[in-house]
Each structure stands twice: as C-alpha cells, then as structure tokens.
Specification:
Elements lengths: L1 H8 L5 E2 L2 H9 L5 H15 L2 H11 L6 H15 L3 H11 L2 H4 L2 H17 L3 H18 L1 H11 L18 H18 L7 H17 L2 E2 L2 E2 L7 E2 L5
Parallel strand pairs: 1-2
Antiparallel strand pairs: 3-4
Length: 235
C-alpha cells in the first residue's frame, strides 16, 4: 500500500488495481457453463478434432453434432495437404457439388494446386497441357487468375525451383493455404462458421489488455496457455 501511495503522490495518471480486487471483479462476471461448452465444441468441430468432439459431447451434454461431416471434411483437407488434389475435388463434389460450382476462386486454386503438384513431380509436358486446357481459359476471364497462373507456370523456367523467386509455391504452406480455403468453404456450406470463435476471443483479450495498459496497472494475463494473472508491477 505504501508503494501505491508513493505512486500516486508522484502524479501518475494510471489507476492501480490489486490482484485481489481484480479477481473479485472477475468473479462477479457470470458466464453460463452452457456457453463455455458451446465455445469449446465450436473450436473442436471447426478444427476437425473428431474424437475429442465426441468425448466432449458425451461429457458435457452439448447438442448432438453429426461427426460424419467432420470426418469427411478432414478427409478433404488431408488429401489437399498430401497433394492428392484430384481426390480432394472428388470428395468435395461427393459432399456437395454446389461448393465448387458456386465458388470459381476456390475451384481455380484447387486446379492451380494440381498444376503445382504436376510440376513438383517433374511432369512438365502434362503440366503445360493441363495449364493450357484447364487454367488458361479461366485466366482469360479473370485478371487475378491469370497472374496466379503465370506465376505458377514460371516454376518451369527454373532448374533449381527451391531457390527461384516463385519457389514458395512448392512449400508446404501453399498446400496448407489451399486446404484451409477448402475447409472454410465446406464449413460455410454446412452452415458452420468458417473460423472458430475461441482464437478471436483471445485476440480480443490481448487487444483489451493493450488498451487498458494505457489507463491502469492491473494483473495481466501474459501467458494465454496458462491464463495466470500476474501481479501488477509498480515502478
């Protein structure tokens, strides 16, 4: 308390909130257990943790979730991540043909990924033929598609693609990007949110703390993995 008095006597404009007072304020905030359960289930379903979702559903008594849809969606995502794009496209059409019919950008990116996989496997002639027959017509209709196609075909101009300016297209991150786009489209078609709510709430927490830092000294959560309240530092 003496430190607090000294702080205020020095003319600090920031309010100091003790850990005890902060914890009391937090305890006064009532959050329904059902809402917390829905938040956790939303994360498990969106991210595709089938076994965890089923176990949590049984333990928490949350509403029934069709886990088959999660399994099918994860099969599509895994196929793209493994480079089996044709298989992924078939699986998407089995789930819902309208997904690709109504999303030309997604279909182009899947076809672009097929082209990348052909180049990765050294199938130069097949890659050129595929680019001309499947992707070039779409590029003529859309300038951004054309630019992406030209960038992808540029891979063929380099012997050492690992060090070329467009070598990032062969990185695993490119597959993951395409897989995430497909995953989001399937979720949307199933009337699910394409992104889990939990990460967004954590970002809001970080933002709120940064805003509060300008006005008060208080117990912060510096490690989101533990959610431990750190005693406010007074200098």
């Amino acid at each position: 308390m003496a430190q607090m008095s000294m702080l205020f006597s020095m003319g600090s404009s920031k309010k100091v909130i003790t850990k005890e007072e902060w914890e009391k304020r937090l305890n006064d905030v009532k959050i329904r257990k059902e809402d917390m359960n829905k938040l956790v289930m939303n994360f498990l379903v969106t991210e595709g943790y089938v076994d965890a979702a089923e176990k949590f559903r049984m333990e928490s008594g949350t509403e029934h979730i069709d886990l088959t849809t999660i399994t099918d969606r994860m099969a599509v995502k895994k196929a793209v991540q493994c480079g089996n794009v044709e298989d992924a496209i078939e699986k998407v059409n089995d789930l819902n043909p309208e997904i690709l019919d109504t999303n030309p950008q997604l279909f182009f990116h899947l076809q672009q990924q097929r082209l990348i996989e052909l180049i990765r496997n050294g199938k130069v002639e097949e890659a050129l033929e595929f680019a001309q027959e499947e992707l070039a017509p779409r590029g003529e209709e859309n300038q951004s598609f054309l630019e992406e196609l030209e960038r992808t075909v540029a891979l063929l101009a380099f012997e050492d693609v690992s060090n070329c300016p467009v070598g990032d297209l062969l990185d695993m991150s490119q597959r993951l990007k395409t897989a995430s786009e497909v995953n989001a489209a399937i979720l949307t078609s199933q009337s699910h949110e394409k992104d889990p709510k939990l990460p967004s709430l954590l970002k809001m927490l970080v933002w709120a703390q940064n805003q509060l830092d300008e006005k008060a000294v208080y117990p912060r959560i510096n490690d989101l993995s533990t959610a431990k309240l750190e005693d406010p530092s007074i200098s």
